[in-house]
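Pipeline run #58 for the internal structure catalog. This entry was flagged by the ingest filter as a single-chain record with no existing model, so it goes straight to prediction. Upstream metadata was stripped on purpose; only the residue string is passed forward. Reviewer on rotation: M.T. Logging verbosity set to normal.
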Amino acid sequence: MTEEAEAKGQDAAEETADKKDKSPETPPPPHHEEISTETSHSVTIDGVDVEYTATAGRLVLTEEEGKKKASFFFVSYTRDDVENLDDRPIVFAFNGGPGSSSVWLHLGALGPRRVLMDAEGMPYKPPGRLVDNEHSLLDAADLVFIDPVGTGFSRAIPNEEAKDFHHFKKDIEAVGEFIRLYLTRHKRWGSPKFLAGESYGTTRSAGLAGHLYNRHGIVFNGLLLISSILNFQTAAFDRNTGTFLRGNDLPYVVFLPTYAATAWYHGKLGAKDQGRDLREFLDEVEQFAANEYTLALFEGSAISPERFRRVAKKLSRYTGLSEAYVTRYDLRIEILRFCKELLRDEGKTVGRIDSRYTGIDRFRDGDAFESDPSMDATMGIYTSALNAYMHDELEYESDLPYEILSSETWQNWDYEDFKNAFVDVSETLRNTMTRNRHMKVFIANGYLDLATPYYATEYTFNHLGLDASLHDNVAMEYYDAGHMMYVHIPSLEKLAEDMRSFVRGSS
């Protein structure tokens, strides 16, 4: 090669390198592009064969100038034999956490496939297996399961801060934008619309109903609130919390009936109460909680010794805890202490999400369990079943980890809108129901739910301030299990019928 040719070759190489440096940035990874898979299936619900299409895919949110912000993963189920979509209800569903994917409602309650557990909701040996869900809501409505950013396969776009979406208001705005885009792209603006949320998902539901009404004029026919929490004051025990929460006695009152139901379930009550019907027993406990117990807590140190002993004795009777233990904590039993103490003499703990489940800690002493046995019973089998389902049945491929429960999301969640105040969306719900008087609300409560107790939910709705003319727009039902009452087959059967009737009656 001549010196001239060598020089030209070097110049060409330098020009090529220069072009590489100035070339467009490498395209975003595939999980930030919109793709989807469609598969056809059939399920028998209430004796009727329902043919349906399952879609697993990603929808990318962008700013108005086109810049990508986040990739939302969703799974939708649409019935095939529908002639007019305007007559077909659609339900947008998600779980809570914050930081939870939609797997629980998806593969536990609403979807056409569910995780196999025994009739009481106890797990079989792993891995998790799926069976047809003969109690799915798909016969009555199309279903869209949404994973908020940071959960499932949903992610913030690279160079965007994921924490921007881990925020009370911004989460509502992002999920709301997903719903608006879905309605537009799939021509569902004319369909009766519902939101279904569980736990923090009920907080999100109330916020979304208000946000979408105000921002886009989207009105919902109904909300399905499963294990509801709208006012966090009802669950904000003052142990290990900020000083502004000190003196909040409300949780001790509204948790008491669920403590009593848990003690009844585990056979820790006296013979007289143990043989009673649960609902009849809880009526008595609620009367004590709302009157004598509330007044005793209100009195504080001004309470007389005689009155204190009388209340402590009743509290011991209803909770299955010793009178000495109740007295030691000044009549105030915090949730994790109860979970540790009730079966301490047996070396067991009870679940917070569902107090029917029991666990075994290394040490019997202490004031809290090592882990929640109700989550230990469900987490692994739901995770394996979900991942197999995505690949084998929905034919969706991704190397991303499916974030079932993201601790990072939960730990970094920002409640900026409620600085020095309790998180509370009950007023948002009241306002939305007052402006959209056709919107109805269904609430599902588990008697053995120590995460969002039924009596706390009753308290919230009794203080909603809803006009008397709208009281019939609220319906509450109760189930003999916990937070995820649908893992208990008799409760799932009842829940399915209750939700189906609600959707059909509200459409």
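catalog note: The chain is about 40% helix and 15% strand.
catalog note: Residues 237-371 form one domain.
status: ready for reviewer M.T.
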